[in-house]
Design goal:
123 residues, mainly beta, seven-stranded mixed sheet, four-stranded antiparallel sheet, globular
């Protein structure tokens, strides 16, 4: 099994930047794909960025050009650099790993999940 733990959330003003980190432990060699999801108040959880084993990256349109996903070669750390943040980016952000690429192509039930970290963007 894979265990994931996020860090780096917080509050920032509109236009600011934050970097989220996710530490992976356990059977990290088995990880095929890692990524970030978010859930805003009153909305469903959505996948926003994903990185495959070969390094291919995928982004949802709402964050493309503003967010960058990256990881270390050992697949023990995952990052999300978030620039030009907007109030609509306010959400709980979750790190995930799973068997498909991008991650939102397969069922959430196949993923390992972190506990989530809050990001709040004020106008």
């Amino acid at each position: 099994q894979v265990q994931l733990r996020e860090s780096g959330g917080g509050s920032v003003q509109s236009g600011g930047s934050l970097q989220l980190a996710c530490a992976a432990s356990g059977y990290t060699d088995s990880i095929y794909s890692m990524g970030w999801f978010r859930q805003a108040p009153g909305k469903e959880r959505e996948g926003i960025a994903s990185i495959a084993r070969d390094g291919s990256t995928f982004y949802t349109d709402s964050v493309k050009g503003r967010f960058t996903i990256s990881r270390n070669n050992a697949k023990t750390m995952l990052y999300l650099q978030m620039n030009s943040l907007k109030p609509e980016d306010t959400a709980i952000y979750y790190c995930a790993s799973g068997p498909c690429s991008p991650l939102w192509r397969c069922s959430d039930s196949t993923h390992a999940w972190g506990q989530g970290t809050q990001v709040t963007v004020s106008s």
